[in-house]
Amino acid sequence: MEIKKHGWKIVCMLLLFYTMMAGFLIEVPRMPILNETIRNLFFHVTMWFSMIVLLLISVINSIRYLSSQNQSHDITASEAVNTGVFFGILGLLTGSVWARYTWGAWWTNDAQLNGAAVTMLAYLAYIVLRNSVEEEQKKARISAVYNIFAFVMMLVFIGVLPRMTDSLHPGKGGNPGFNTYDMDSQLRMVFYPALIGFILLGIWIMQLKIRLKKIENLKQNEAIHC
Amino acid sequence: MLLKEIKYLLWQELKLENRQRFAFNGILLYVISTVYVVYISTKGDTQPQTWVSLFWLIMLFASANALQKSFVRENSNRYLYLYTLSSPQGIIISKIIYNGMLTGVVSLLTWLVYSVLMGDAVSNKWLFLCSLWLGNTGIASLFTFISSISSKSSQNSTLVAVLGFPVLLPLLLTLLRLCNASVMGVSVADVQHYLYVLLALTVIIWAMAYLLFPYLWRE
User: Fold this and answer.
1) ipTM of the complex model
2) Contacts with A225 (C-beta within 8 Å, 6 or more apart), sequence order
3) Kind and range of the H or E element at A73?
4) From the CA of B122, how many Å to the nearest CA of chain A?
5) Which of A88, A173, A180, A191 could form a disulfide with A166 if both were Cys (CB 3.0 to 4.6 A apart)?
6) Site from A81, A132, A148 to mutate, B interface, most B CB atoms within 10 angstroms
7) pLDDT of residue A174
8) Is it the case that residue A181 has pLDDT exceeding 50?
9) What is the mean pLDDT of chain B?
10) CB pair distance less than 8 Å for B170 and A157
């Protein structure tokens, strides 16, 4: 019973353990410019995928909140955004350090980088919006509306526009990298486990934060009643 | 039914505007003084691409400033009765149309003043006009919707920029590409797809506003 309920956490830890080990130790294909930094695939790209999954969870919960007015959906939506923004910051940091050594700059005017910046700004704005409204229900409703709106605009920005321009990223615009045809099977063997591991980790952190928030709310209610 | 409502609400907005001349004159003066500040600081001597980006920066801040007040009036009790009679969809559509018309007129006047002071850099007038109109409609709709969100919170004025600019960037980037093309004299066929992107983005904003506004309006 316990193992069924919490088994995925063990899977998550095993996968991440494997990622840490294999990610640094396996043989990777030698490519010009990239060289050993190709290992960042396991630690940088996975951050963005985890963030997108968390933001997707958030937007689904926002829609559910608007249709049901159930407070717990709102808590899930906001904590998913908080965790997603955390993963986004990690993605920015790992990407920035990597870019410094491969492209020679911390930040460049690249379609994908702009997308990342917009996403982060929009969701930081979401957090600011939440803090600026006092009343719980109004806060939940307004932030749910903004969340849905921002998510759709973000999808357009990171899904459609980068396809119309070249990017400096590996595998795009003629850069060497891991396209469908040259992503090594060795890389895949670590990349997919790493992806699942980090996504599960994100969901785990989100769950803990949700529980913490619910306990905080309960304590606050008790304090009011006493 | 909805059409009739929109027509009535739009008429109401125009009558109020005509009586107060509050929004229109405000933005117009804002735009002219900003253009003059830009003219003084650049001495009217800019590269074509800088010309375009400065123009859109002015338009962006002018519309953010002008439209952040679009829902302030509605929060006062005087208008409460009028708005209990009409549907939220009618209100948001009429507001978007009104704000689009307002910023449309202002953008044309800005272009005029800006070209007189900063020199006329546009070589393909029709492409520029087309993207000016499309872009303005998009920006106006987006800020109308964002201001309806921010009017519900306590710190109205800063929030419009904070909430609006990140989600506006896709629109702005496409717009800048189009206008740069019109300045550089690139043929329309090469940038045609950006016009469709711009149109699609505007339609997405309309759809989102139409679907989501009722949730904001319900108190």
Assistant:
1) 0.86
2) none
3) helix A71-102
4) 24
5) A173
6) A132
7) 47
8) no
9) 84
10) yes
A26 band by pLDDT with thresholds 50, 70 and 90: confident
Which residue is listed with tokens 């609006």?
B164
**Rounded Cα–Cα distance for residues A31 and A189 (Å):** 18
Percent of chain A having pLDDT more than 70?
86
- The yes-or-no verdict on residue B75 having pLDDT over 80 is no
Would you kindly state where each structural domain of chain B is located, as residue ranges? Answer: 2-217
The amino acid sitting at A164 is M
By the CB < 8 Å criterion, does A168 face chain B? no
Structure tokens at A202: 């994100």
DSSP per residue, chain A: -HHHHHHHHHHHHHHHHHHHHHHHHS-----TTTGGGGGHIIIIIHHHHHHHHHHHHHHHHHHHHHHH--HHHHHHHHHHHHHHHHHHHHHHHHHHHHHHHHTSSS----HHHHHHHHHHHHHHHHHHHHHH--SHHHHHHHHHHHHHHHHHHHHIIIIIHHHHS--SSTTSTT-SS--TTT--HHHHHHHHHHHHHHHHHHHHHHHHHHHHHHHHHHHHHHHHH-
- Residues B1 and B82: beta-carbon distance below 8 Å: no
CA nearest to A201, candidates A47, A89, A65: A47
Give pLDDT tens digits for B165-200: 888 888 888 888 888 888 887 777 778 888 888 898
Structure tokens, A100: 């410094």
Closest CA to B172 of B136, B121, B196: B136
Residue of B13, B116, B144 lying closest to B55 (CA atoms):
B116
Q: State which residue of chain A sits closest to B163, comparing Cα positions.
A: A125
Buried residues in B48-74 as b, exposed as e (16+ CB within 10 A): beebbebbbebbbebbbbbbbbbbeeb
* Nearest alpha-carbon partner for A142 in B107, B150, B28, B49: B150
Chain A residues close to B154, C-beta within 8 Å: 132-134
The reported pLDDT for the residue numbered B79 is 66
